[in-house]
Design brief:
Largest sheet: 5 strands, mixed
Structural class: alpha/beta
Helix content: 25-40%
Strand content: 15-25%
Radius of gyration: 16 Å
Number of strands: 7
Length: 153
């Protein structure tokens, strides 16, 4: 990314309001890490080829199965470098590293499903907070996930 594009993006981001939340997000006591079920949530706009891609104002999410590795990066921002993803999926979605942690006994198990959002959503915090975020959390709770790793992009 050029310095001028970076400067312009930083200037734009500085004008966006920062939300303040009156309540704390849902949390619950978890099991020890070595017995915990762990899931990934990424904002890299990745999806399977058979799923609908992310549109510019898409605040929805895509469900990714634990075995999915053939994924498409749907991030359209000109400020996002796709090189890392093209070389190694784990740069934005560290599923193989999570599998290794489970195999080594560091974590209990890898969740059966993981989730992807499009991260470049400057004006939709309310929709994410009140609609799609809780919907995604319901899936994680249904899978009895103890820990969620957010990989922001």
């Amino acid at each position: 990314m050029s310095e001028s594009a970076d400067t312009a993006m930083r200037a734009y981001a500085a004008t966006l309001p920062v939300p303040e939340f009156e309540t704390t997000a849902f949390t619950r006591p978890t099991r020890p890490l070595a017995r915990a079920k762990v899931a990934l949530v990424t904002s890299a706009a990745i999806h399977r080829p058979d799923q609908e891609g992310f549109s510019q104002t898409d605040t929805g999410f895509r469900t990714l199965d634990r075995s999915d590795r053939n994924l498409v990066l749907g991030h359209w921002s000109p400020n996002f470098d796709h090189t890392g993803f093209q070389l190694d999926l784990n740069v934005v979605y560290p599923i193989d590293r999570l599998e290794e942690l489970a195999a080594d006994g560091v974590i209990g198990e890898v969740a059966p499903r993981h989730f992807a959002f499009a991260g470049n959503q400057p004006d939709t915090v309310s929709e994410l907070r009140l609609d799609t975020g809780p919907a995604c959390a319901a899936h994680l709770k249904a899978d009895a996930v103890d820990i969620v790793l957010l990989t922001p992009v």
